[in-house]
Amino acid sequence: MTNQNDFDVLIVGGGMVGASLAIALRDQPVRIGMIEAVAWQVEDKPGYDDRTIALAWGSRRIFDSMGVWQAMTPDATAIKTIHVSDQGHFGFTRLDARQQQVEALGYVITARAIGKVLTQQLAEQTNVTLISPATVTNLECDKHCATVTVNQEGQSRQYTTSLLVGADGVKSTIRELLSIDTTMKDYGQTAVIANLTTEKAHNHIAFERFTRTGPLALLPMDDHRCALVWTVETDEVDDVMSLDDDRFLQAVQKRFGYRLGKLLKVGKRDAYPLRLVRAQEQVRERLVLIGNAVHTLHPVGGQGFNLGLRDVATLAQVIAEARHTGNDIGSLPILNHYAEWRISDHERVIGFTDNLVKLFSNDSLPLSFARNVGLLVADVLPPVKKALLRRTMGIYGHLPRLARGLCLQEPEHGT
């Protein structure tokens, strides 16, 4: 039957997750539309800023399978070791890439560097139509298609699609227009991010240190620079942001210690309030939500974007297999298959990050003792360490083809 819709897949949101999905599908026989609120030629897109991304090994494998990783490598710094500690206590754990016989546990790269590569790739992709600047004003879904109304350069236009993908972030317009409820947990914490110059070389070690106000991470970048993610209580953030550079460095040094020697310089600072936001539905007939539109996490452990990229890899495979077998990619049975595949990964990662925040934000003596014993156990028991490594690297559970280093071309039997 001839498809009369404008697109097979219409993606709302041209950030890292939405753009990655379009690129993952570039060799598939699908017509893709992408609606982006910001003009595509503008370099300073909101989603492509200077935030640092801790890209897990499994995510590097997805990008590699998509054919974009090589272009990102000049801007990526390998994480070869992760050192986890609890300020003022005895517990610590070290995770090393050599224990998994890989070159790195992950990589540190800015959202801007990822965005530059994805934007260049999309500009050359023949099966994508970029619709920007445009904002969605209305949408309707039925058994045959999703109809999306957009405001494009002051004019109202409509597009139809077999499958509508909401990849428009934590404040998703698609989710709001369809009245999909969310649950929200405010952690009462804010992430202060900046780049630091350190006296000693980082030697490709990422540090995650739990403090009274929340986790403090230093992630390796080029030369003697590290990316700082410092979690502070929200009622303290104004005081922290108002510190001059010297006093700010002293405050970080007090919490982090001198493993990298003296902290010498700090760059521009930004602050982001931390919440756990979850959509109550991730699929409907003709609709799927992915990335931050369906789950926004606390940054502890650096899991958020990696979880969204696994959404991309799984959805791309489900779409490719449905097309290969002649099934309707926007039908509820196909989308329920995607949702069932993703739910266990979502639950594990959200539970893991949420429990870490609760566990390390409590100063009670019994809990403090128990968590530090747990850190030591994770450091010395190989099975525990292996499980933690695989979770950190994003290579556990039922992985889609792209996450296993395979292409989408031919579906495997039994998937």
Molecular structure report:
The protein has 415 residues and is an alpha+beta fold. It is built from eleven helices and 20 strands. The strands form three sheets. Strands 5, 6, 12, 13, 14, 15, 16, 17 and 20 form a nine-stranded mixed sheet that branches. Strands 1, 2, 8, 9, 10, 11, 18 and 19 form an eight-stranded mixed sheet that branches. It has a three-stranded antiparallel sheet with strand order 3-7-4. The radius of gyration is 22 Å and the shape is globular. The protein starts with 6 loop residues before the first strand and ends in a 22-residue tail after the last helix. 45% of the residues are buried. The model is unreliable at 364-381 and 411-415 (pLDDT under 50).
Would you kindly provide a brief summary of this structure?
Helix content is 33%, strand content 30%. With 415 residues, the chain is of the alpha+beta class.
Strand-helix topology:
Elements: E1 7-12, H1 16-24, E2 32-35, E3 52-56, H2 57-66, H3 69-72, E4 77-79, E5 81-86, E6 92-96, E7 106-110, H4 111-123, E8 128-131, E9 134-141, E10 146-152, E11 155-166, H5 173-177, E12 182-198, E13 205-211, E14 214-220, E15 225-233, H6 237-242, H7 245-256, E16 263-266, E17 270-279, E18 283-284, E19 287-289, E20 295-296, H8 304-324, H9 332-360, H10 365-380, H11 382-393
